[in-house]
Amino acid sequence: MACQAMLETRQPAMPAPGRAGRVRRDAASGTVPAASGTVSSDVPGTPAMPGVPWWGMVSAAVAPVLLISGWTFAAGLQRGTYNAVADTVSALAAEGAADRWVMTLAFLLAGVFEVVTGLSLRPAAAAGRLILMAGGVAGLLVAASPEPAGGGGSVRHMSVAAAGLVALAAWPAAARRRGPSVPWGLRPAVSAGASAVLLAVLLWFGAELLTSGGQAGLAERLLGGLQTLWPALVILSCCLSQPGTQPPGHPGSQVSPGRTADPAEGGPVVIAEKATNIADLRGCGLDR
Q1: Rounded distance, CA 288 to CA 95, Å?
Q2: What is the pLDDT of residues 163-192, one digit of tens each?
Q3: Angle of helix 2-10 relative to helix 268-284, nearest 10 degrees?
Q4: How many Å apart are CA 17 and CA 210, to the nearest integer?
Q5: Positive or negative: CA dihedral 219, 225, 231, 233
């Protein structure tokens, strides 16, 4: 009788069918007790980050292809002695260059796509997204500020180009996130490493310009390729980190964002309550 009374008092009232109970992960035991509300973000397998829209994936994939193909095609159109290893990409869009519209258009479109990518990169921190979009805007200003014919440089062109290159090298570190569900491309160590590599290549490019080392074009192409490729890799990591969902009550089941576990469907709340009842039966010797 004592055990029967204990079981009756321990038996919780089940919610009405169709009502959702909140699922929270118990930090001590790893069980999933019931409460009211929504699904906690630390439930294993639950996506804790918003997704990237399809148009963001397209813009991130197109930007590096467009920029690299742009400077390759523009270099082939030059009638003079253009050296892709020693001469900068900006020389292809300079005043007096053959078919300068090709590289100018590549700068414009690459800048637009970088802005679009920053808008779509919702899993990243806001600071990193803003810096990435600022780098895209700087690319637009580079296209609107060509170097003068015959070289010599332009203060406006050099200023906006330097600001854009620094922004595109710094945004990964500013976009970092923390947490077990963060995509690998946004984890602190990976983000810091990416910025360090981009900054190192940027310093190499700056040194080539200052010392006329003969490899300024190579350094700039490597830098531009890496800077436009990294957002695509980050978005790829965001897509790969989005797990699928399974019906509640199955092993490895997950609860999608915006949904709650229904105890009437055999979700985690029912499993936790059954485990408690089984422990009570064993304590009374009624488990056989």
Answers
A1: 90
A2: 999 999 999 999 999 988 899 999 999 999
A3: 170
A4: 73
A5: negative
